[in-house]
Specification:
0% strand; 261 residues; mainly alpha
Length: 261
């Protein structure tokens, strides 16, 4: 039993993931002077930060997917989940009290510094994972911003006066792009070198909206939260769908190894 827990702890410890998630959550708390609104901000954004770390790790894995066997792919996928585990721990520590959104405002200087720290961590993790150039995918960027513009135009056509819930709207755009990437993977199971670009569309198409969710929640919470005052980025709204999608994606990647052989 002791050996089992030692092996488990060894596999769950990853210093870069701990730095990414830990400093990001501390930066979120700093925005509201480490007071209760800062804890609410962590509750709303802990899982998005963890999923961003997960996606960055998976994009790094894709760079060599055509040269990896099935077992290596599964083990690498498991390692990529570590940031999400750290984020869940942070969520558990910060949450538990009542939500009081009457003090969500903080100084622009703190918001700017918190945003800069978060973006710097994302860029650092991306560079460490596979290089910044790998994380620039025009198709995913266009998909994201066209989706946003389409929603804005639809709001204007429907003459909606005050639109809220943009966190969930951005997640919807991300999941739609993720599904498009999965369809591309299914169409290229017989060509492993084509699996990577389709998977990249899935992952980056979800990564970009999540980064916007974090930034938007910091600067314009009144637009990001839904009418019930929730951010819509908890276990049921974000984590479980992402894990299911990653399970499908990893299954397709593993299946491609047997398809070719």
């Amino acid at each position: 039993m002791y050996d089992f827990f030692m092996i488990l702890l060894t596999n769950l410890w990853d210093l870069p993931s701990a730095i990414f998630v830990g400093i990001a959550l501390l930066a979120l708390a700093y925005i509201n002077s480490f007071k209760k609104p800062g804890l609410i901000l962590i509750c709303d954004l802990a899982y998005p930060v963890g999923v961003i770390g997960l996606l960055i790790g998976l994009v790094g894995l894709l760079q060599n997917v055509s040269d990896l066997d099935a077992l290596t792919i599964v083990l690498a996928m498991a390692t990529a989940l570590v940031p999400l585990i750290y984020a869940a721990i942070g969520y558990g520590i910060a949450c538990g009290g009542t939500r009081d959104l009457s003090e969500t405002d903080s100084s622009p200087v703190r918001k700017a510094l918190g945003t800069i720290i978060f973006l710097a961590l994302v860029l650092w993790a991306a560079e460490k994972s596979a290089g910044l150039g790998i994380f620039v995918l025009l198709d995913a960027l266009v998909f994201t911003f066209v989706g946003i513009i389409a929603l804005v135009c639809a709001d204007r056509l429907l003459k909606k006066q005050y639109v809220v819930g943009w966190s969930q709207r951005l997640l919807g755009i991300g999941f739609l792009c993720f599904l498009c990437g999965l369809i591309g993977m299914l169409a290229n199971l017989d060509e492993r070198r084509a699996i990577g670009p389709a998977a990249a569309l899935s992952l980056l198409g979800l990564l970009y909206p999540l980064v916007l969710v974090v930034i938007g929640r910091i600067w314009v919470p009144e637009k990001m939260l839904n009418k019930n005052g929730a951010n819509g980025t908890g276990l049921l709204d974000l984590v479980f769908p992402v894990l299911f999608g990653i399970l499908v994606l990893s299954g397709l990647m593993v299946s491609s190894t047997f398809f070719i052989s």
